[in-house]
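User: Please predict the structure of the protein below. I'd like the answer in structure-token form so I can feed it into my own downstream comparison script.

Assistant: Understood. Taking the following sequence of 240 residues as input:
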Amino acid sequence: MIIGPYINAACIIVGGLIGAYLGGRIPERLRNNLTLLFGLCSMAMGVVMLARVASMPAMVFALLIGTIIGEILSVEHLINRLSSQAKKGVEHLFPQPKNSPSQEEFLQKFVGLMVLFSFSGTGIFGAMHEGLVGDSSILIIKSSLDFFTAIIFATTLGLSVCTICLPQMGLQLILAYLAIIILPLITPEMKADFGGVGGAIMIATGLRICNIKQFSVANMLPALFLAMPISALWLSLITK
């Protein structure tokens, strides 16, 4: 029975509710410092995943081609529109925090947070791992981190944070139920290269959360779907 995605979604919802309720009660210095810490943790996890890459050329090609496709399709623009609609819908139902950010700042943080929750290597691998062997421990660990992250971000982004559970749970459920088909076809090298692409995206996400560099993170997401095929192609070329 698949339970990890549901636990992860529940933690995001509960954390979002608590953070929205606390709002300005959490000191601004603590909110800012913890936000920077979450960005640092994202970059640290990304570096670890990136260090395990098997074929650097395959990873770079996947990032380049995937980002070009994302830019052409304007993935981030689409997510921004959906995020704006989510924000408006929540604002009609619930009052927003007094320290609610501007629309531009909201979209920057919301998109980065959605990538961190929904498309991190931990979540993707955790969902695939649970689908294959029935072990939800990886997603449970991720859920505990997401819980505290949701609390902090919801103090400024409000209840909109809770809506991130929808793409997060949807993606994890799809991966978990398809894992039995996908994982037997994956070599350790393909998995490592996939993790490397995810690590690079997580580093970009951390830089964005820390307001160091505003990468168009969402436009990089198609690279995740190209990582394993390009890795397999590269391995087949160099082994001939």
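That's the full token string. The radius of gyration is 18 Å.
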